[in-house]
Amino acid sequence: MDYVVSRVKAAVKDPAGSHRNLEVQTRTISPTQISFVVQTFLHNESVIVLDLPKLDGAPLRVKGTIKVCQHNNGLLHICLVELENKLDLSMFIKPPSTPLSKKPVADNAPESANGAQLQPLSVLYIDDQDADRKLVTYQTKDTHIELVSADSTGSACDLLKLDTFDVVVCDFHLEDTTGIDLLNKIKPELYSGPVIFATAETRETELVKMKTAGADEVITKPLDITRLSAAIAAVLDENRDQQTKSFDPFDAPPSDMDFAKSYIPMLTRLRDDMARAKAKRDVALAKTVCRSVMGTAGGYGFQRLSRTAERAYAAIDAANNIDLAGKPVAEFRSQMDTIIQAASPEAEATAA
Questions:
Q1: Which of 72, 82, 152, 232 has the most CB within a 10 Å radius?
Q2: Per-residue pLDDT tens digits for 317-342
Q3: Fold category of 121-245 in CATH
Q4: Share of the chain above pLDDT 90, in %
Q5: Where are the domains of the chain?
Q6: Highest mean pLDDT among 150-159, 198-207, 259-268, 283-292
């Protein structure tokens, strides 16, 4: 199951006897294995001790052995640990509607202007300046904003391959690039949600250029929690409005439904191929399914499914392992099921 938690403490002893302490980001968990990402190579057969946060927030110390450590062609390595003792997953499982990367709403959670408790939001903040990342991290501490920060385009892309975020907030002037370049790189393959640019730029022409390039909102530095929260709420509200207007679960207008439904028999076969790929851990077949959906779904009106397939493909390609690809693959399979079930029973029967 998905178990995405950042800044998990890990102590590693490699086969030569060297020790080091690290912080890792967990990705998946089972009774006997756990996968995580880390910004350094770890030797196979290294002994590792992890402090895993339970549902109540208290850490559970577990011990295991690293069996796989693969570079994902970015800045991160993906590791698979075989645990020494079986885990009771009930200590970690949350309801499906509440992703494990999100904290539950506490009784003393921050409230909106109308007194309603604010839901936790996962936000990726990208800034190459240490001081700015530290400032925003401090300001969002103990708020409904769960901040994950990245200091470069490469690390941001790695994080977007590994986890889902409600909002991306990006400094406009990055080292050797701009927020516009980053936006073009991550959309739509890695991320399709709202993007906010943060900038010290005050010239109106430049601010307009940022909005024209695709930024959902632009806010000026220095950031403060009030303006940041307001900007995030505004872009999420607008995004929800746009989703509500779409024909769910199809993106095609109702007049094109007959044509859209003609894709269902093909999609059913692809869904079954993906299930076989998952069962057999067949990376090549899984990537073939993703490419097929990427290439055809949008033409039949399933734009969101096409973007989900792109994200699943990127995750599988990065991990070179279906199980380690985690949440993007699960979301892809779930969305295929949702579309097939929403179509007419006759369409699915045709594929049988």
A1: 232
A2: 877 888 887 778 888 998 899 888 88
A3: Rossmann fold (3.40.50)
A4: 22
A5: 2-91, 121-245, 254-351
A6: 283-292
CA 9 to chain centre: 21
Residue with the bigger pLDDT between 48 and 96: it is 48
- Quickly count: other Cβ atoms within 10 Å of residue 223's Cβ: 21
Per DSSP, the three-state class of 135 is helix
> Token pair for residue 191?
């991320």
Class of domain 2-91: mainly beta
pTM for the model stands at 0.49
Token pair 């003609």 is found at 262
Report the candidate in 89, 78, 84, 4 with the shortest Cα–Cα distance to residue 49.
84
List the beta strands (DSSP E) in the chain.
Answer: 2-13, 19-29, 33-38, 47-53, 59-71, 77-83, 121-126, 145-150, 167-171, 173-174, 177-178, 195-199, 217-220
Among candidates 32, 40, 25, 50, which has minimal Cα distance to 101?
25
